[in-house]
Write a structure and sequence with these properties.
The complex is a heterodimer of chains A (291) and B (361).
Chain A: H1 3-7, H2 9-35, E1 37-41, E2 44-47, H3 51-57, H4 60-90, H5 97-107, H6 114-124, H7 131-138, H8 149-177, H9 181-189, H10 194-205, H11 207-222, H12 226-231, H13 243-253, H14 257-284
Helix pairs in contact in A: 2-14, 3-14, 4-8, 4-11, 8-11, 11-14, 13-14
Chain B: E1 4-11, E2 25-32, E3 37-41, H1 48-56, E4 63-68, E5 71-72, E6 83-86, H2 98-108, H3 113-126, H4 142-154, E7 161-165, H5 173-190, E8 193-198, H6 201-207, E9 210-215, E10 218-223, H7 225-230, H8 235-240, E11 247-250, E12 252-254, E13 257-260, E14 263-266, H9 269-277, E15 282-286, E16 292-294, E17 301-311, E18 315-322, E19 325-332, E20 341-345, E21 352-355, E22 358-359
Parallel strand pairs in B: 3-8, 3-9, 6-7, 7-8
Antiparallel strand pairs in B: 1-2, 1-4, 4-5, 9-10, 11-15, 12-13, 13-14, 15-21, 16-20, 17-18, 17-20, 18-19, 21-22
The chains are: A mainly alpha (291), B alpha+beta (361).
């Protein structure tokens, strides 16, 4: 068969190439452009090489934001993954009214726009009229997330857990529902304890969905912007200034497009690296378990 | 080890069953001997799996008691009964090695390590799983996986019965035969009671000493393969067992003969006597294997038109029109192929009479 005949197949995937190029590659290349030049206006630019990268990498405030971000994502995963799995395990397993109600209630936080979530929690935690804030203050404890960094973190974590644990729970629930009943019956006959059922049946069978849950939760929490921006604006002080908030400060607040471009690329590479590591780690879980 | 008694078992999946229709299992009352190989045979939805799950304890019957020997186990959970069950598709603990899969039931029961090790090796030896003992179970073939499921049952020395729920469905045909032989061998070696659910009559006939034929929640007959073939208790058994199934023709008694349309088929004296006592709807039943077709007329033979001849490989099925009813006869491939008409005769010793679908006896 002649080669040109085969090549026509490329036409079928050309649209995908074009879409990906315009939606991802072109904007990314713009950022690369910004990151290696100093741009004053149309036609006025100077090539600066790695200067912006050096500036960004030695920026103390960026380092602090990165550690803050890692701590935040770490806490999110540590709390949301086990909690989501626990909720999924407690949900009614029969297809019925109870299960439907649970699913709808669980999905509610996921349906709310992100900045609305921030607003809800601003009101919820207000010391004067908020249900949570006022209640805590009536108990004699002072709670004010606008003045106290720790309180701001607690509020953010509560909001994040409330907002996103349902996603983990829904994915884990879907994973649990796909386990054929024969596995549970066999485990019963083998005299397995409920811990053993969880450890050797449910957890391995949920591996696929949990990998997805972990990656999604890591990426989303690492890139979080709208909710802390609305709730705390990065404060008090810089205590809740995460990478994305800091990035916006540089890019929009100070209009330093060069450092912002370099920062964005580094940010992107960090997320990519972590996702790769998580994915590899989860793929290898269980493979090491030989007798 | 013990015999299994089913005492007036009935089961319904509905919370408050009103009539027979709502019972998946109607009245089952039976005793299964220790060390027997039983097959539960029936079409899909006849209650085989329900009955199996009642024996294993995965289901609690709506009515009746289950006894192992003298012990009433109706209220005991599956892990307290000494049974093992092999499911339709292999159930494995994917993340464990083959060894740990086999050891799992023993570990859960707190046996010491040396005992577990020895016992697992012994069972792996019987099942020929030694070469893969330290491999992960996940990557093995369906037959090896099914052997592991079986092995998890066999490792427990106290096991009284092994229940199989269509275990060979997912196995390739050549391997099916090997596994079936292995099962037979294990049965002879370990003298365990085996209960085997299947809808495949060949599987049932080759595997079991006794076959329990189920139909719409009833046990219609329990017997050896030969009994089921020669004296089917119910029309369903006649139809379900054998390939093709038994021929049935509505008939009426006329002295020592039965009348079918305008023809009279002679009976032997015992069958005639049974027929004369009956007063329900009578049907004559005869296996295609015993129905005779011949090129030459004989005493008591009828000349009938041939409808079709099917070649089934080692035998042929001849369909003839007898008084408006299609009857099938089985002839060997060496017999001459009948053309437009042939001579049909009903050997007296193979004629069975059925009254309201039940065998007269």
């Amino acid at each position: 068969m002649k080669k040109w005949q085969d090549n026509r197949g490329w036409l079928f995937i050309l649209p995908v190439f074009l879409i990906v190029a315009f939606s991802a590659v072109v904007p990314l290349m713009t950022v690369v452009n910004y990151s290696i030049q100093d741009i004053f206006g149309p036609g006025q630019r100077v090539f600066v090489g790695t200067e912006w990268f050096r500036e960004v990498l030695t920026d103390e405030r960026l380092h602090e934001a990165l550690w803050r971000q890692l701590l935040f994502s770490g806490l999110v995963l540590l709390i949301e993954m086990p909690l989501g799995i626990a909720i999924a395990l407690m949900m009614p397993d029969k297809k019925g009214f109870g299960a439907s109600i649970c699913l709808v209630v669980l999905a509610l936080p996921l349906l709310i726009p992100w900045n609305v979530i921030g607003t809800i929690w601003i009101i919820f935690t207000r010391p004067d009229i908020g249900l949570m804030g006022a209640t805590i203050n009536t108990l004699g404890l002072t709670f004010d997330h606008t003045a106290n960094g720790l309180h701001a973190w607690i509020t953010l974590m509560l909001m994040e857990v409330w907002h996103w644990t349902p996603l983990v729970a829904l994915l884990a629930y879907a994973g649990l529902q796909s386990i054929p009943p024969a596995y549970y019956q066999a485990a019963k006959i083998d005299g397995a304890s409920s811990w053993a059922v969880f450890r050797y049946i449910q957890l391995p069978k949920m591996r696929g969905v949990l990998t997805i849950a972990l990656l999604l939760r890591f990426m989303d929490s690492f890139l979080i912007y709208a909710e802390p921006f609305v709730l705390t604006g990065g404060g008090p002080g810089n205590t809740t200034t995460f990478l994305s908030i800091y990035l916006v400060k540089i890019a929009v607040g100070q209009f330093d497009l060069g450092p912002a471009g370099a920062f964005s690329l580094i940010y992107f590479l960090i997320v990519l690296l972590f996702c790769y590591l998580f994915y590899q780690a989860l793929q290898n879980v269980g493979k090491g378990e030989q007798a | 080890m013990a015999q299994i008694s089913l005492d007036e078992i009935a089961h319904s999946y509905m919370p408050d069953p009103q009539n027979d229709e709502e019972y998946a299992l109607k009245r089952i009352h039976n005793i299964w001997e220790d060390g027997g190989a039983y097959a539960l045979l029936g079409p899909s939805g006849c209650g085989k799996t329900t009955l199996l799950n009642i024996i294993s304890g995965l289901l609690k019957p709506s009515k009746g008691r289950v006894k192992f020997g003298e012990t009433d186990v109706t209220d005991l959970p599956p892990e307290k009964r000494n049974i093992a069950q092999v499911f339709q598709f292999p159930v494995l603990y994917d993340t464990m090695s083959v060894f740990n899969n086999l050891a799992f039931p023993l570990k859960n029961r707190g046996f010491d390590k040396d005992y577990i090790d020895a016992r697992v090796r012994e069972i792996a030896g019987i099942l020929e799983l030694e070469p893969v003992l330290h491999k992960k179970a996940e990557g093995l073939g369906a037959d090896a996986k099914q052997k592991i499921s079986l092995g998890r049952g066999l490792v427990r020395e106290d096991v009284a019965a092994i229940l199989f729920d269509e275990p060979l469905t997912v196995i390739d045909p050549q391997l099916k035969w090997q596994l079936r032989c292995k099962l037979k061998e294990i049965h002879e070696k370990l003298k365990l009671t085996l209960i085997y659910v299947t809808h495949d009559q060949i599987e049932a006939l080759t595997f079991a000493d006794k076959i329990i034929v189920m139909y719409e929640g009833w046990i219609v007959q329990i017997g050896t393969p030969q009994e089921l073939f020669e004296y089917p208790n119910h029309k369903f058994v006649g139809f379900f067992i054998g390939s093709p199934g038994m021929n049935f023709v509505p008939c009426t008694m006329a002295g020592d003969t039965v009348r079918i349309g305008t023809k009279q088929v002679p009976l032997d004296s015992r069958t005639a006597e049974l027929g004369q006592k009956a007063d329900g709807n009578l049907e004559l039943g005869i296996r295609p294997l015993y129905l005779k077709v011949s090129q030459t007329p004989a005493e008591d033979s009828f000349e009938v038109p041939v409808k079709s001849v099917e070649d089934q490989g080692s035998f042929r099925i001849v369909s003839v029109d007898f008084e408006g009813h299609i009857l099938k006869a089985r002839i060997t491939e060496n017999d001459p192929v009948p053309s437009s008409t042939t001579h049909l005769s009903f050997p007296k010793e193979w004629i069975r009479l059925f009254e309201n679908e039940h065998l007269l006896k």
